[in-house]
User: Fold this.
Amino acid sequence: MSQDTLFDKVWDLHKVSRLPGGSDQIFIGLHLIHEVTSPQAFGALKDKNLKVKFPDRTVATVDHIVPTDNQSRPFKDNLAEKMIETLEKNCLEHKIRFFNIGSGNQGIVHVVAPELGLTQPGMTIACGDSHTSTHGAFGSIAFGIGTSQVRDVLATQTLAMNKLKVRQIWCNKKLSKGVYAKDLVLHIINKLGVKAGVGFAYEFAGPAIHELSMEERMTICNMSIEGGARCGYINPDEKTFSYIKNKLCAPKNEHWDKALRWWKSLKSDENSIYDDVIKLDASKVEPTVTWGITPGQSISINQQIPLLNDLSPDDKLVAKEAYEYMSFNPGQLIKDTPVDVCFIGSCTNGRISDLRVAAKVLKGKKVSKNVKAFAVPGSEKVATEAKQEGIDQIFKDSGFQWREPGCSMCLAMNSDKLIGNQVSASSSNRNFKGRQGSPNGRTLLMSPAMVAAAAINGKVSDVREFIN
Amino acid sequence: MKSEFTPPIGKISNIYGQCISLIGNDIDTDRIIPARFLKCVNFDSLGESVFQDDREPLKGKHPFDLEENKNATILIVNSNFGCGSSREHAPQALMRWGIKAIIGESFADIFYSNCIAIGIPCFTLPKKLIQEIQKNKDNNFLLLDIDLKNSLAKSRDISLNLEIKESSRKMFLSGEWDATSTLLENENLIEKKFHDLPYLDFNAESF
Assistant:
C-alpha cells in the first residue's frame, strides 16, 4: 500500500469518515459541472427534497453540446437548447456560479477551471466527466464521476470511494524535437495497456515530466483515464504556482502567500512508497499515431501496424476487431495513410500552446484540397488569446475553419461529425468505434502538430519534416 | 420494448435470471450508448438505444436483439468492460434494457462505481471461466442464481465463486448502495472538514 505520496496526503486530508461498508467518505474541494451529466443529478436532488450543500464549491460551464459554427440562442438543435436551458435554470435556482457562452470564460470544463485559477494543488476535484484527471497536472487529486455521484457531491460535497493504489511513471531524459506531451502519453498507454490503470492513480514524474509546461502536463494527466487510471497527477512546482498566480479565482494578496506556503509543502516524499513503479526513457519516444479502436493501439510514425503474431494473446481479440473496423492491414505503414478530416481541439489538446504549435507548422502552407480541417479553441479565453496573437488568421489562411469553443468533434454531440467511414486525424483523446459521430468513422489520434502536418499533406505525416 | 422498468431499491441479496453473453475486450461506454443519445435531461428512454451502433449493422443478430435473450438479466462480459467516458447513461441504458447484474473478467473504474451507485452488482471471474460460460452452446439458456451473501452463482450444473469488492457487497446487502443518505448521516463531520481544509479559507475571497 502506498505511503507518503501526494495522493496519500491529499486523500487523508479530505477523508471525512470510514463508511460502514469499508469505503472512505471523501470531501470534494471543487466540483465542476456541465450540461450533459448534471440534469439528472439535479432531478434526483429534487426527488429527495435536498439542497446543494455548498453551492460555492460547484462551478458550471457548458461545453459538450454547444455548436461551434453559430452559437446564437436558441440553438438550432432543440435538444441542445433544452440542455443548456436546464443547466441555466439549475444554476440559477441553486446559486451556482455559471460561466455561460459570451461570459468570456466559457469553454471545455477542463480548459476553463485551470485558466480561471480554480484548479489548485492539494484539492480534491470531481466532475461528471472522465477527463477530470486533467486537473491532476496541478497536484490536485481529480477524477471523473457518474451522475449519481454528481448528485452525492451536490447534496453532501462528499463521495463514497475506495482508495486507489498509486503507480509512479518515471520518465527519464526529455522529449526530442517534434515530439510532444501527446506522443509521450500515447506511448505510455501503449506500453502499459488501456486497463493497466484500473484501481490506480498514476503519478507522472521524472526529468521529462518536470521539463513540461503546465499545458503539456494537462495533456498527460488528461489521458490517464485512457490508460485505465481514473486519476493522474504531477507533483506541483514553481511552474504550477506561477501558472496559477493572478488568475481570476486564484488567491490574492496575503491569501496568495498563505496558499503558496501550503502548496510548497505538498509533494510525494522522497522515500514515499508506491504500489508500483514504471520507468521509461522519454527521449526514445517518437511522434505517435493510433491505428486502432483503443488509445492503446498506437505506433510510432515510421512503424508498421502490428501483425497479429506480434501481439500478446490478450491484445489479439481487439486487434482483429480494429483491423476490420479501420480497414487497415497488419504490417501496413501508418505514414501516408490518407485522411479526410483534421480536427484540432478538445480538453486534451485545445489550449493556446497547442494552437501555437500547430500554427507554426501551418504558417505559409495550405491544407490539402481533399481535407476538411477545423480548429476549435478550448475556451473563449483561448480563442481571444489566439486572435490577439494572430493565430486564428494563420489557421484561416491555411484553409482551416476557425470555430467557436466547445468539445466539438472529440465526442460529436453537436453537429461536428465524421460522415461514413471518413478517416480523421484528431488531437482528441478517444479513437473508439463511432466516437466522432459516424458509426463507422475512423479516428487517428495524434498531437496537434501532427494533425497540422496531416492536414497539409492530406495524409499521415511526420511533423519533424516540417520543423527545423 | 420490455415490461415497464422499475429501478432497484433497498437491499439486494439475490439475483436470479438468464445470462446474455457479449464477447469482446475493452468495450467502451461510447459503444454501450453512443454520444448522440446523451442529449437528454433524464435517463428514461435509453434502454432501447443500448449498443445502437453495434446492433444496427447486425440486423437483429446482435445478442441484445436475439429473441432468446429478451428476458436476460445477467450480462457476461470480458475484460475492461465499460472503459472510456464516465457517462452513467451507459449502465442506465443496460439497466433499462433489463440487465440487473454483470459478471466479467474486469471492469473500468468509473463504470464500476456507476453500476454500484444505481444498484447493478458487478462481479469478476477468471478469464477462463468467463470464456467457458461464453462458449457454452446452451449459454442462451443459462440461468444463474446469484447469492450476494456468499458471493456464489449457481445453476443446475455449475457453481461459481464470484468476486466482488467487499465494500460493494456490504452496501448491497445492507441496502446502502444509494449513497446519498449514508453520506448525509455524517453531516457534522462534513461541516467540520469544510472548516478545517486549509484552502477553502484562502480561496474564500476569490470565489
User: Anything to note?
Assistant: Chain A has two domains: 6-264, 288-465. The CA atoms of residues 137 and 218 of chain A lie 5 Å apart. The longest strand of chain A covers residues 165-172.
